[in-house]
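USER: Note each token:
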Amino acid sequence: MSIKKSDYETLLAEYSTRSGAIALLKQHRPYLEALPSIRRSEQSLITIPLPVVRIRRPEIDYSNSLQPKTPRIATSLPCDLAILMCDPEWKIKLGTEIIVFIHRPEEDFSDLIDRWRKTQIYLDRDYEWLMPPNEQHMFSEAAEEINPLFVVFEATSDRIKQGLSGAGFPFVIQSLDLPIESEIEENALNLD
């Protein structure tokens, strides 16, 4: 059985919600523990599907060589989702970011890892996130810690799972029998 585009789209839509992102983090406990508040988990993270960052690139203004310019260039990252941690009380972004890569149809191991490597290169510069409309007030500068999380399907080839495991990358195997939202909320309450 192969992965369909609709399978990928289903997971992307699910993880774009805060409750879906929390359900994903529950499958990789070290990242769940990175949430500033388990009790207020939905207020402790921001999800950005298909994220864009503004990268600052210092350039010299050749008309005045003593005056450096710093243009900001919006760049689409090759990842599927960014999960940013924030303090639920102060409503400020914290230093940990989780970058999610969902296995795409027709994507092989090297393609999947290459997306992470390109994301690392972009985020190695001075950047800021283009935040969702309801979070634009939040300071969105670069992170102290960037962590990848790979999502593969039960139908994903064993070669990809073996490669991720061998490279030491955290990944979760996702079935398409996603829990309905009420089950996710009930599970979140059980963590309190």
Helices lie at 5-15, 18-26, 29-32, 109-123, 158-167, 181-191. Residues 39 and 145 are 23 Å apart (CA to CA). The radius of gyration is 18 Å. The chain is about 30% helix and 30% strand.
